[in-house]
Amino acid sequence: MARVDLYLQGKDSALEEIIGRYSQIIYRYAYALIRNHQDTEDLVQEAFINAFRGMPRFRKESSLGTWLHQIVYRKFLDKQRAELSSLKVRFHVLVAANPKPVV
């Protein structure tokens, strides 16, 4: 937890240490969920941004790694929900454009 405390005190080296220690682990976890390198890179970047912005709220009840994994998983679910919502909208537009069933 020392890295978190150092980061909260404004030590830039702590940020680099956290990214260095967890980036590969988090990337592998995200890739296992997504299976696309570009989307994985985007998700990992967003997760680290969220983590550093939320660091003051990190309660240290779990390890930093566990917390980062949870952030990645929540970001993944958010993206899945957004994709599902987009598919529903496209489906409704398609149905509205073709009101008669095709037989």
General description of the model:
This protein is mostly helical and 103 residues long. The chain has a single domain (2-97), classed as RNA polymerase sigma factor, region 2, helix turn helix motif (Rna Polymerase Sigma Factor, Chain: A, Orthogonal Bundle). The protein is 80% helix and 0% strand. It contains four helices and no strands. The chain has helices at 2-8, 12-34, 37-54, 64-97. The protein is elongated.
Strand content: under 5%
Count helical runs. Answer: 4
Largest sheet, in brief, is: none
Order of helices and strands: HHHH
* Cα-atom radius of gyration: 19 Å
How many structural domains can be distinguished in the coordinates? 1
**Percent in helix:** over 70%
Mean of pLDDT:
90
CATH superfamily: RNA polymerase sigma factor, region 2, helix turn helix motif
Question: Regions with pLDDT < 50 over 5+ consecutive residues?
Answer: none
Give the N-terminus to C-terminus distance in angstroms.
63 Å
Briefly, what CATH class? Mainly Alpha
* Architecture (CATH level 2) name: Orthogonal Bundle
Number of DSSP E strands: 0
- CATH fold topology: Rna Polymerase Sigma Factor, Chain: A
Structural class: mainly alpha
**What is the molecular shape?**
elongated
Task: Give the topology.
Blueprint: H1 2-8, H2 12-34, H3 37-54, H4 64-97
Brief summary:
The protein is an all-alpha fold and 103 residues long. It has helices at 2-8, 12-34, 37-54, 64-97. The protein has a single domain (2-97), classed as Orthogonal Bundle (Rna Polymerase Sigma Factor, Chain: A).
